[in-house]
User: Fold this.
Amino acid sequence: MRDLHIVDISSNDIVYEPIRKGFGRGLVEAGRQNDQVVALCADLTESTQIHLFAKEFPERYIEVGIAEQNLVTVAAGLAAMGKIPFTSSYAAFSPGRNWEQYKTTACINNQPVKIVGSHAGLYTGPDGATHQMLEDIALMRVLPNNVVIVPCDSIEAYKATLALSQDKRPGYIRLARDNSAVMTTDDTPFQIGKAQVFSPGQDVTIIACGTMVYQALLAAEMLYHDGIDAEVINVATIKPLDTDTILASAKKTGCVITVEEAQINGGLGSAVAEVLSENYPLPLVRMGVRDRFGESGTPAELLEHFGLTAKHIALQAHSIVKKSVDS
Amino acid sequence: MGKNATANKRPIKELELIATKIREDIIISLEKAGSGHSAGPLGLADIFTALYFDVMKHDPSKPLWDERDILLLSNGHCAPVLYTTLAHSGYFEKAELSTLRKFGSRLQGHPERERLPGIETTSGPLGCGLSQAAGMALAMKINKNHHRWIYCILGDGEQNEGNIWEAAMLINKYNLHNIIAITDRNNIQIDGTTEYVMPLEDLGAKWEAFGWHVIDIDGNNIDAIIDACAMARSIVEKPVMILAHTIPGKGVDFMEGDYHWHGMPVGIADIAGAPPKNEQAKVALHELRTLEGKIRSEHQ
Assistant:
């Protein structure tokens, strides 16, 4: 791989781990670094990995029960008193159920309440459509003051959690349930609001977030063998969006693909499309779940079903590169 | 003003006069605004006067004083009584009340935390105040700082919201007894009486079933409000809900008890039983200025 920051994804010793695990470890470290960090959960401590914090800092942990509206509004009260509350549940319930409470008491109040949305996207697998939160990026992205982060792997989730604990704004972090590839290392840079070029290229820009970054890198490998030099950008921060990095790459390659395992409406692809169409219109393909709900299945089956594997990305790349050369 | 109020008690008669002035300013600012809620703020004037001019420890010259008691207005549409009381306490100039709901004003239609000194949280969408009180009390508990009081004002119709009962359970679970909740039990909401829209009774029994100590009072009796708050502070085994029975529109005859005034200012609509709209403000102010003997806050 011709990148500067990440592991060789073509190697056979790629490690797999759920992204949420990185959050769990990151929050413990955040708690060690700052005694104002507190945690709340709505009866999902182990699956959201917040149990690690609860175990080490029981006096700073609050169990609110199955009550997501209370989860974020209690957190807002804690934040008003100087705490930095991390609230965890499944993304389907938080922010799925408590969006207005979060808007009013965290975002208008402009307080550092953090929503940790675990089990987001298709990697939730067999639980089906009700639990596969695909709308969270769109919901969170429209809120003023709010930071939206979709880490690509567990190591990035660790860094993002620490960064959010040091950030004064309200923020959302999206986590996936099942094992996914670990691409970054302890040395891979992470900064809120900064996109990272994980693999430089000249012919097409592939912008991805979350688990789709790995698929994008695999696609870039395939494309390299086909003579297409793809640039892969990890946009971990959806808001604020790193428009400079996106525009610089678009101007270089002349065509862009976005990939996310979320609704195609309002997510990463929409954010990128807004920037490009206002500043530098060019051929663009948005890949994601196309205005449908999910269903039960393994993550691999679902990615195949919704057309979100490396192979699908490579196909789109071939077609968009051809189109932009023809035009 | 306000700070260490307990050391410098005002006679009840003086508090009644302050409440009357607050009511007058509520009417005047709502008429200028041309929209907003009348009934709730008028009914709450005695509670706000008692809290800001007697009960609470606060300092208008230091709105972020870290020893202050906190007031959360969960039913944010009653902002006019909060703004007017803050102005009368000295948080900002009374002249600013005339900007209520106007473009560029710090007195937004519903209160916003970062806009105006003395506003502890943003509210309007109902059901969120008690949870935030819980979060504040939990922070105090974590900090081992129990000597501050959190007064949370709730509407009664607001208690249709599930979020309130989630908070009620959590506050009981953690025994956050430095929260004193006060329900403005005025029996009205937008579409009619509370018992017509969504029956709340037996409201006291509901709160008791959730593990709270309930005190019923006449919420337009300043003496009773002060007494109930003193009793609430002495109860440490349970959180306390003061069910303050108030008369919506209190002080203005044609508004009292009529739910049509829930979300309406004087001067924009002809309502059965009320003066013509162009005379409503005048009549209301005249009634308030001649209230003497009408609001019996002091037991005589």
